[in-house]
Write a structure and sequence with these properties.
InterPro entries: Mce/MlaD (IPR003399), MlaD_Phospholipid_Transporter (IPR052336). This is Phospholipid/cholesterol/gamma-HCH transport system substrate-binding protein. Pfam families: MlaD. About 55% of the residues lie in helices and about 15% in strands. By secondary structure, the protein is of the alpha/beta class. Among the domains are: about 35 residues; about 100 residues; about 30 residues; about 55 residues, no CATH class. Strands 1-4-3-2-6-5-7 form a seven-stranded mixed barrel. The longest helix is centred in the middle third of the chain and has 34 residues. The N and C termini lie far apart (about 195 Å). The model has no long low-confidence stretch (mean pLDDT about 80).
Length: about 325
């Protein structure tokens, strides 16, 4: 039987359409027959997730979104079918969340749990709502916005209070205060001019003082060698003092003072000869009598020499009695 061209064209068209549909579904991650490992996740908001979007665990793509269906007519929940590439050990308490990407497609990230049992094919995994990048930013900006609103409200209240305080009388008082400030500023200008004049008058004295200081420093510079020698001499003196046996000298001085104190103590007591001589009145009287007797003897020898030296050819012996008291001339001496 001969097949007409129209039949051939129709058959080729049907095959082409079938291949196109199968290829399109294949590119979207769907196959003609639903085979493989499938798990399901329920969300109240899919946040724009689409079929063939990736599913990741620890940054590794383990599958893709196979299908999205509503759980009921009220759209209270949306079921997302996830096709896994292989049979992975996913703990039963793992959580699948949708991550928004403002620069690309949304994806599903599964955070692994620690349960000893694993999710099987056909099970429904736990889900959570993730704010995403923009959501995180908005959540962080939310408190800031609330603070700004509170600040604006406080500023509005302050401005209202300021408007209430600034009545006409207060404004007049402020104007008077500003006028007084202007007067004070003018007075300060006059005072500064007076101070400048005083400084100008004192310029000569200041210049003279500076000249004296310059002269003093010049003299120091001119006598630098003398000052250096003087400092060297002082340094040598201090070095000699540091080398000197000051402790020994002080010890010797202490010993000398102790010896002198001992001598003075003995002189003050009546034990020694010097002490008796200084403190014994009887010895003093005897010494006085001895001196007096010596004076009498000297006066008698001077007045009656013949009594003691009897050398005479024609003379006679001096028969006058001896002196009993010193003469007045001797007493005066």
């Amino acid at each position: 039987m001969k097949i007409s061209n129209e039949t051939k064209v129709g058959a080729l068209t049907a095959i082409a359409i079938t291949l196109l549909i199968l290829g399109f579904n294949f590119l979207k991650g769907k196959t003609l027959f639903k085979t493989g490992n499938f798990i399901y996740a329920k969300y109240t908001d899919t946040k724009g997730i689409m079929v063939s979007n990736g599913v990741f665990i620890n940054g590794f793509q383990v599958g893709s979104v196979y299908d999205i269906e509503n759980a009921d007519a009220n759209l209270s929940a949306i079921v997302v079918a996830i096709k896994l590439k292989d049979n992975y050990n996913i703990p039963s308490n793992s959580v699948a969340s949708i991550k928004e990407n403002p620069l690309g497609n949304a994806s599903i990230t599964i955070s692994l749990g620690d349960a000893p049992t694993y999710v099987k094919s056909g099970d429904t995994i736990l889900t959570s709502s993730s704010a995403g990048l923009l959501g995180d930013v908005m959540n962080k900006l939310g408190p800031v916005g609330d603070q700004i609103k509170a600040t604006v409200g406080s500023l509005d209240s302050v401005l209202k209070n300021i408007n209430t305080i600034f009545d006409p009388a207060t404004k007049n008082n402020l104007q008077e205060v500003i006028a007084n400030i202007n007067k004070t500023t003018a007075s300060l200008v006059v005072s500064s001019a007076s101070i400048q004049s005083m400084l100008n008058q004192q310029t000569g004295a200041i210049t003279a003082s500076m000249n004296n200081v310059n002269s003093f420093t010049k003299n120091l510079a001119d006598n630098n060698e003398k000052v250096t020698r003087m400092l060297s001499n002082v340094e040598k003196t201090t070095e000699n003092l540091s080398k000197a046996d000051i402790d020994g000298t002080v010890a010797q001085l202490k010993n000398s003072i102790e010896t002198l104190n001992s001598i003075l103590a003995k002189a003050s007591s009546t034990d020694g000869s010097l002490g008796k001589l200084l403190n014994d009145k009887t010895l003093y009287d005897n010494l006085s009598n001895t001196v007096r007797s010596a004076n009498i003897l000297m006066d008698d020898l001077r007045v009656h020499p013949k009594r003691y030296v009897n050398i005479s050819v024609f003379g006679k012996k001096d028969k006058t009695g001896p002196l009993m008291a010193p003469l007045d001339s001797t007493k005066l001496k």
